[in-house]
Amino acid sequence: MKFLKQMWTNTLNIGITKDLDEKDAKFIRLTNALAIIVGIWLFSIIPSLLPYYPSSQFIIYNSLLFPVLWLFVLYCNHKGWYTFAKLFFSYTTMACVVFNSLQAGRESDNHLFLLLISVMAFYTYPPRQLKYISRVSLSALILFVAVEVYLTNKGPIIQAPPEFFQLGRLITLVAFCILVYIVTLFNYKTLHKAQDMLEIEHQKSESLLLNILPPVIADRLKSKTEIIADKTNEATILFADIVDFTVLSQTMEPEKIVSLLNDIFSEFDTIIKSHNLEKIKTIGDAYMVASGIPEPREDHCEAVALCAIDMLSSIKNGISDDSKNFKIRIGIHTGPVVAGVIGKSKFIYDLWGDSVNTASRMESHGAEGKIHVSKEVYKKLKSKFSFEEKREIQVKGKGMMETYFLIQKI
C-alpha cells in the first residue's frame, strides 16, 4: 500500500521542478491526476462492454486508444510543455466524449461530460491563461450543443439492445459523479493548503515586524499612514560598545567577526528581553537600548541599570571562548527624547534628542568594564545602587559634566 501511494505521488509530481511556483504546480498535478484517472476508468469499463460486441466495438477501441494517448500528457509535463499538455488533454478528452456520445446515443448522457470539461477548464488552467480557459470552455459548450442537436435528430450510430444504452447511462452517471468529487476534493485541499501557507507567511511577517518595531508602534504603523513621532519626557537610554573592536577585528576572519558579534548581541537580546526593555538598534559593534518608550514605565532608569549590570556580567563571564578577550563600555543617561519611525523601506524605530547624544557621550567617555552614568541617572538611582565617587570631565559638545560609575544594586 505504501508503495502504491508513493508511486501515485511520483506520478502526480511528474514535471514539477524545485524552482516551479506552487501555484503552477497544483495545475500540473491536477492534469496528471485526471489523465491517469480518466484513462484507468475507460480501461475499467471495457469488460462491461464486451458482452455487447460487435455493437460496442468502437467504444471499446476508444477506451483502448485514448488512455494510451493521455500518457503523452505525462510526457509533455515531464518535458516542461505544461500548456501544451493541458490543451492536448482537453481537446482529446472532448474528442473521446464526442465519439462515444455519437456511438451510444443521447440516452447514455455521455455528452454531459462536455459540460464537465467546460467547467473543469477553470480548474486546470492558471488564471493568467484566461484565453486558453475561454477557448477550451467555449469549445466544450459548442460541442455539447452540436452533439445534443445531432443526437436528437439522428439518434445513435450503433444498433444495440436497450440494456446497452441503460448501461451506458449508468457508466456516465457514475463517472460524472466520481470526476466531480475528485476535482472538488483536489481544489478544496489545494485551497486550504494555500490558506494555511498564507497564514504561516502572515505570522512570519508579523513576527518579523515585531522584531523590528515595538508591538505598540507596529500596530500604529499598520492602522495609520501618518508619520509616527512621539515626545517622551522620561526615558533612559543605554549605549554599549566593544572596546578596541576595530583593532581586534583586523586580526580575525570576517566570518569569525560576524559570528562573535552575533553571539554577544544575541546574549544582550536575551538580557533586555528579561528586563522588558526596547532594543533600538546596533551600529557596528555598538548596541543601543531604551526604556520608558514607547510606553512609559516608572522604573525605566532602574530597569536599564539592572540590564547594564547583567550585560557587563555576561561579558566578564565569557559568552563564548572567543569573546573572553573582549571588554565593553556602557553609558547611560535619562531625560526627554523624541521617538518615531523613519523611512518607507527598511524603516526603523529610532530616538533623537540631546538625551541620546548624552548617553552616547557617557559610553565614549567611560572606561572598559564599567557603567558610566550621568548626574541625572545618579540622582534617580543613588538610593538603590552604589556608585564610585563623582568625577568632573570635559565632554565633547557638552562642556564640563558631573558623572559617576555605577557599581551594583544595594
UniProtKB/TrEMBL annotation:
Keyword Transmembrane helix recorded: yes
GO process terms (BP): cAMP biosynthetic process; intracellular signal transduction
Listed EC numbers: 4.6.1.1
First-tier enzyme category under EC: lyase
GO annotations of cellular component type: plasma membrane
Primary subcellular site in the record, as a coarse category: membrane
Annotated catalysed reactions: ATP = 3',5'-cyclic AMP + diphosphate
Keyword match Transmembrane: yes
Gene3D superfamilies for this protein: Nucleotide cyclase
Molecular function as annotated in GO: adenylate cyclase activity; ATP binding; metal ion binding
Domain Guanylate cyclase: 236-363
Matching CDD domains: CHD
Regions crossing the membrane: 33-53, 59-77, 132-152, 164-188
Family membership noted in the UniProt record: Belongs to the adenylyl cyclase class-4/guanylyl cyclase family.
Quaternary assembly: Homodimer. Can also exist as monomer.
Annotated protein name in UniProt: Adenylate cyclase
Species classification: Bacteria, Pseudomonadati, Spirochaetota, Spirochaetia, Leptospirales
